Amino acid sequence: MRRLEMLKAREILRLKFEAGLSVRDIGNACNCGKSTVSDLLKRAQKAKITWPIELTDKQLMSALYPPTESPTSHPEPDMEYTFHEMKKKNVTLMLLWEEYNLSSRKV
To answer: What are the distances in angstroms from CA 89 to CA 61, 62, 86, 95, 97?
Structure first.
C-alpha cells in the first residue's frame, strides 16, 4: 500500500470507530467497495487495532498486511537448463514445462 492508501485505511477506521458508520456508508464516503472496507475492518480486528491509532503508516501497514509465507513448495525451474534444452531440435517450451511439472510432483 502506498501512503495515500494508508490515509484511506486510517479514514475507514476513523469512520467505523468514531462515527459508527455502516460498511456501505464508509465505502461511499471513501469511494471504495464494501468488500474493501469489510476486508480492512476484519484485518484491523485480527490485528487488534483500535481507535485512536498511535501507529506510523509503516507500522499500520505491517499490522494490517503481515508478511505471508510462500505457498509454493516445489522448486523453481532451472532456466539455464531450459535455455540449453531449447536450442535442441524438436524441443518445445511446452515439452519442457511438462517435464518440469512431472518432476515437481515427485518432489
So the answer is: 51, 50, 8, 12, 16
Q: What is the pLDDT of residues 10-61, one digit of tens each?
A: 999 999 999 999 999 999 999 999 999 999 999 999 999 988 888 898 899 8
Closest by alpha carbon to 65, among 88, 101, 40?
40
What cell was used for 58?
509503516
How many residues comprise the chain? 107
Neighbours of 15 (CB within 10 A): 20
Q: What is the pTM of this model?
A: 0.62
Whether cis (ω within 30° of 0) applies to the bond prior to 67 is no
Q: What DSSP designation does 107 have? A: -
Q: What is the full DSSP assignment across 70-81?
A: P---SPPP-HHH
pLDDT of 67-107, one tens digit each?
877 666 667 888 999 999 999 999 999 999 999 988 877 65
Separation CA 93–CA 81 (nearest Å):
12
